[in-house]
Amino acid sequence: MKKSEAISLFYPGLAGSATYRIPSMITTSRGTIIAGIDARISNSLDNPNKINTAIRRSRDNGMTWDDVQELVSYPGEGRDGAAAIDTALLEDEVTGTIWMLFSHTPGGIGLRSSEIGTGFSENAERLLFDSSGSAYRLLPNGHVANSQGEMTPFTVDEEGNVHVDGGTKGNIFLKKGIDPDETLLEARTSFLQIIKSDDDGLTWSRPIELNPAVKEAWMAFIGAGPGRGIQIQRGDYKGRLVFPIYFSNHHGKMSCAVIFSDDHGKSWRRGASPNDGRTFIGQTMMAETLSAEGADLTESQVIELPDGGLRVYMRNHAGLHRTAVAMSMDGGETWSDTKYDQVLLDPVCQSSVITYPDMGDGKTRVLFANPADPNKRRNGTIRLSEDGGSTWKYAKEVDAYTFSYSCLTVLANGDIALLYESDFSETKEMTIKFTTFTLDGLASS
Fold this sequence. Notes:
By secondary structure, the protein is mainly β. It has 2 helices and 35 strands.
C-alpha cells in the first residue's frame, strides 16, 4: 500500500507548549489543510488545565506547513489555568466560512467538576458570581447588573478582566480563590463555544457563545465531537451545518447529539440524543435522567449517506468494545436505536470517519480510523468500506504501537490524510503525526 512517511506535525516543546493532543482536520474548498489541536501548555492532562486552541495550515497537500497559530487562549497557569479544549472543524461550502467548535472551562473546572447549568440568564446574559454566591449579569456593553437589574460599578472587558473604581479586580475566567483581588467569576461549568474564519483560516473571530442556544439547565459538561463536522449535501436538509457534541447530566452520565445551523451559522439548535428513548438493558433511557452504568454515548463523528441519512459513530461504555452506531433521517434531530458494529473494535476511544467523494461508480466509500484493539489504544488502523459502512472490506495498519485520537480528511489531489496521536517512547508525551495514503493503495490492502 502506498503511504507517505509520517511526520511529526505537533510535538513536545513546539511553539512553547509542553505537549499537544486531540487533532481535528479539514481540507478547505481552496485546497488548504487546516489541522486543529489542543496546545497543552504545561502538561498533557485534560482540563482543569491551561489549554489553548491552535492550528497549522498547509497549502500543498501537507508537504510544508505554516507555523503554529494560536487561536484561543484563556488566562491562568498549569492545572489552575482555564481551557479551550477538544476542537472540531467544518467549512460552509456555500459561504466559504470555516467554523471551529470547542469547549471552554474556567480555571479549576473540567469534565467531572462542571456544575449544572448554562452559565447564562434567560436573556442570554453571562452570569457572574461574587465570593458569597450572589449572582450578577454581564450586559453586552460590558457593564454588570445585579440580580435586581440595578447597575453596579463593575465592568468586564473582552479578556475577562474585572474593572472597578479605576482598577482591575481579578478575572472572571480564573480558578476560584487564586487571585487575591478576585471580585466576580463566571459560572463553574462548561461552555460550548465556536469561532469562525472568512479567509481560509488566516484570521479568526473571537469566541461566540453557544450555551444559550444548545445547552439545557440540567446539563453540566458540554463539549465538541471532537474531530470534524459536516455540511449536508442533499435532500430536505441540504446546506445544514452539523457538529457532533456530547454532554453530561446530574448523575455524571454522558450522551451525544448534534448541533446544527440552517442559516449558515447565524443560529444553532441541538437535536435529540441517541440516548433519548433508547432501550438499554431492558430500560427506556433519556439523556436528562440517564443513570444506568454503561449507557454513556460520548465522543462521536457523523457522516452523510447517499439517501440523505446521517450515521453517527460513537465512543461508548457498554463493555462490548465495539463502536456504537445510530441513524438519523431528519438531519440529526432524532436517531434510531443504537447498534454496535462488530467489525469496529474499540478500546473506548474517539474514532474518525468520513466519506470519500463520489466517483460515479455506484460505490459509497467510507473511511474509518481508530485504535483497532479491544483493550488498549494501539494498532491504529484505517478501514475502507465501499458499501456505505455496511461491510469493511479493506483495512491497513497505520501504527502498531500507541495510537489514540485521530482525524481523517481527503486532500485536494484525492489522497487521504490522517492526523493521529502517538507518543515518544522515552517521555510518553503525545506527538501528533500526519501521514497520507492513496485510495488505490488502501483498496488493495
